[in-house]
Specification:
- It is a single chain.
- By secondary structure, this protein is an alpha+beta fold.
- Helices cover 28% and strands 23% of the residues.
- It has helices spanning 5-10, 28-32, 43-47, 108-127, 147-158, 217-222, 339-349, 369-389, 417-430, 438-442, 448-453, 466-489; strands at residues 16-17, 22-23, 104-105, 130-137, 164-166, 177-181, 186-189, 206-209, 227-235, 248-254, 260-266, 269-275, 283-288, 296-302, 307-314, 318-325, 351-357, 394-398, 404-407, 410-413, 434-436.
- It has a six-stranded mixed beta sheet with strand order 3-21-18-17-4-16, sandwiched between helices. It has a five-stranded antiparallel beta sheet with strand order 6-9-14-11-12, with no helix packed on it.
- The protein is globular, with a radius of gyration of 25 Å.
Length: 490
């Protein structure tokens, strides 16, 4: 200690620069006045959040009530006859509160846009119509961790069943469905990894193929060896109750340029044989069932794979809340999509509200305020793209959560986080989008250590635990519900 005392006393805060390396040592100030971990009291915040009525009872899909298979005797191929009764999706309803511990930040334009969506949402059950809410986000929502709670609340109140959109190839552990696929399927996505040069991913920003993507006209003509691949989907009993039952299943595909046969099996029984449309354009293959669909297996046979853009697992009517997790994505991806395919898919889905939950992946890389403004200007352009793709869509931006960096022996919020939040709120307002402040909802600056200590976030001081995700999601839903209640009163 005596030998080290002068080193401590004279050590500069920026450390010793030795040319090829730099050595930092405990400074005099840090030695005599060490930093103490800031701990915010979030007990009242957590206690005020009610996540008890999320219907987590296990109600397995009613597979035993399947109607007898109907076959069209004049068809050359086995055809599944659409036999839905049109009744899956009824809401439970309930009282709505116009009070919330957090709020949606809405400019006049954003409020007008959101209220137009509320008008459509309010009529879904009575008109037995259907609309989608697309929840785009980074790894904070992957695996359906936040979306599942928001979906359950909305579907209970306003109607709907099923998890909605799921990717052609799911690579994240998820609670809301099960999926398997043959080993020759390859995943492509717009935000990292393998890319499609034609950018025809669809609305989820990811797609799958079982043969290589790039072919010229001569390759297409000479490729004739038939290859087979399959994708299998079934309900997950760990899902929220509303997500476990669905009886309308849609396959979205594009870029089919060679004959492609598809056989569909329900619980191991062949129910449908078809050929995909080989004009290279975007198409949908829908199937309806009398009750929950159970396990479905799609078997494709073709010399050249179509691009599978995803599936949608839905009820007969109500609201679908789609989880589109994009690990590592900053939210600036819409320019990497074929806008014609995305616009067509948005129309088919009746996508009337889009949630954009981004910003967290960029936080560690901001060096100064100008780098924040460059990012938020780019993010602003993404909001504009969404509005061009589907002009009737309302948008709510969910900003980054609190995130901690290990500095000098303690965890502290990233220095520019409050500025990032203010800038994202600003550009959202300019573009007529709502903004929900997740950073503030958690408790603001340096609140993440308390979430970690309470088991509500992981030891990375970035991601929520499942329990933390349910609380954060409920806080968002409370603000969403309160705004709807205010609209309803007016």
């Amino acid at each position: 200690m005596l030998l080290l005392t002068p080193v401590v006393y004279f050590s500069p805060e920026e450390g010793y620069d030795l040319g090829l390396t730099k050595i930092n040592f405990l400074s005099k100030e840090e030695f005599f006045h060490p930093k103490k971990q800031i701990k915010k009291d979030i007990s009242k915040l957590v206690a005020s959040v009610d996540t008890t009525n999320l219907d987590v009872e296990v109600d397995k899909p009613l597979l035993k009530n399947l109607e007898p298979l109907k076959i069209n005797p004049t068809a050359k191929k086995l055809k599944h006859i659409n036999n839905s009764k049109g009744s899956l999706g009824a809401p439970k309803g309930g009282d709505l509160s116009d009070e919330s511990t957090t709020e949606l930040h809405l400019s006049d334009a954003a409020r007008a846009n959101l209220y137009r969506f509320f008008e459509k949402m309010d009529k879904v059950a009575s008109e037995k119509s259907k609309l989608h809410i697309l929840h785009y986000g980074d790894s904070q929502i992957e695996g359906d961790r936040m979306t599942s709670y928001i979906r359950q609340r909305i579907q209970n109140q306003f109607g709907g069943n099923g998890p909605g959109l799921i990717p052609a190839m799911n690579v994240y552990q998820t609670i809301s469905f099960k999926q398997n696929y043959s080993s020759n399927f390859v995943r492509y996505n717009c935000f990292g990894g393998l890319k499609l040069k034609n950018r025809r991913y669809g609305a989820m920003g990811s797609a799958a193929r079982f043969t290589a993507e790039e072919y010229d006209s001569s390759d297409i003509a000479n490729t004739n060896t038939i290859k087979e691949a399959w994708i299998e989907i079934e309900p997950s009993y760990s899902a929220q109750s509303r997500a476990r039952s669905y009886n309308n299943v849609k396959l979205f595909y594009t870029s089919c340029v060679k004959p492609c046969a598809v056989k569909i099996y329900q619980n191991g029984r062949l129910i449908h044989e078809d050929s995909l449309i080989k004009d290279g354009k975007y198409h949908v293959l829908p199937l309806n069932f009398a009750s929950s669909a159970g396990k479905l297996k799609y078997v494709f046979s073709s010399a050249l794979s179509p691009t599978i853009c995803g599936f949608s697992l839905e009820g007969d009517y109500g609201i679908q809340v789609d989880n589109i997790g994009m690990r590592g994505c900053s939210g600036t991806f819409f320019g990497y999509l074929d806008h014609n395919v995305v616009a067509r898919m948005y129309d088919d889905l009746n996508s009337e509200l889009i949630l954009l939950q981004f910003g967290g992946n960029s936080v560690p890389f901001f060096k100064d305020s100008s780098s924040v403004r460059r990012y938020t200007a780019q993010f602003q352009s993404q909001i504009r793209m969404v509005k061009r793709l589907h002009p009737s869509t309302s948008i709510i931006v969910i900003g980054p959560s609190d995130m901690s960096k290990y500095i000098g022996g303690i965890y502290e919020s990233y220095r520019l986080l409050p500025y990032i939040v203010s800038q994202m709120k600003k550009v959202s307002s300019i573009e007529g989008a709502g903004y929900w402040d997740l950073f503030l909802a958690m408790g603001g600056l340096n609140s993440m250590p308390s979430w970690v200590e309470s088991g509500l976030a992981g030891k990375d001081y970035i991601h929520f635990s499942n329990r933390g995700a349910s609380i954060a999601s409920q806080l968002f839903y409370d603000a969403f519900e309160a705004e709807f209640a205010k609209w309803k009163q007016q």
